[in-house]
Design a protein that fits this description.
Elements lengths: L4 H21 L41 H15 L3 H12 L19 H6 L8 H18 L4 H10 L1 H7 L6 H21 L28
Helix pairs in contact: 2-5, 3-8, 5-6, 6-7, 6-8
């Protein structure tokens, strides 16, 4: 018998929690972010290693977040901030492939690849929690869009290379990685989506809205 939607979502979250715990738990022992929100039983209180110590953990050990749950989180945060859901979805696809435990060589963490400093400035105390990570990343993208007067190309460039680089170059920096990043996401959002149907409405899962987060007055300037 097929699982009902609520049961399926619950099982998906349980599997995700286990895969995140498997990867991040191997690097326990230092000071770092403590993962708690997805566990019915709290892990050991020893904490986890800093982000840089987690880079040896293979992202393949962590399953992508269930698509229905990811879509609900994206829509919830994007709607609250007035940001395009398609833009956020493609940023996540590019940044982490929807893997909540993804860690970059530079230590950026989670779905939207937030650095420790950026996460802290956004009020994200657990960057491996998909809800918190997406909510923080969306608020960062909203701030960048506001700063660059609604230009998604410049906001994306700042998200990838940092605001300082965009300001110094007075546009998208001439970095191969950043130009590829901006071009890929812009093409997916503004050219490919109508053809592939990614703009078609999706019914979000019935998940309680993310409560507002008190963001510190000092905005993040570090590149995620």
């Amino acid at each position: 018998m097929a699982e009902t939607a609520p049961v399926a979502r619950g099982n998906a979250l349980a599997r995700q929690a286990a895969s995140v715990r498997k990867q991040v738990g191997r690097a326990r022992g230092g000071n770092g972010f403590f993962i708690s929100s997805w566990f019915s039983e709290a892990p050991d209180t020893g904490g986890f290693a800093p982000a840089e110590a987690l880079t040896t953990s293979a992202p393949e050990d962590c399953e992508p977040l269930d698509a229905t749950i990811a879509e609900a989180y994206i829509r919830d945060s994007a709607k609250r901030e007035g940001v395009s859901t398609d833009l956020i979805r493609e940023v996540i696809r590019k940044e982490s492939g929807f893997h909540p435990c993804a860690v970059s060589p530079k230590g950026a963490m989670g779905m939207m690849q937030l650095t420790a400093a950026t996460a802290a400035s956004l009020g994200v105390d657990d960057p491996y929690d998909a809800r918190q990570n997406i909510d923080g990343g969306v608020r960062l993208m909203k701030r960048l869009l506001d700063k660059y007067k609604g230009r998604p190309d410049l906001a994306l460039a700042a998200y990838n290379a940092g605001e300082g680089a965009v300001d110094a170059h007075q546009g998208v920096p001439d970095y191969a990685e950043t130009r590829e990043y901006v071009t890929t996401i812009m093409k997916r959002v503004f050219e490919e989506a109508p053809k592939t149907g990614r703009n078609s409405p999706r019914a979000p899962a019935k998940i309680a809205p993310i409560p507002p987060v008190n963001v510190p007055a000092a905005a993040a300037t570090a590149s995620p």
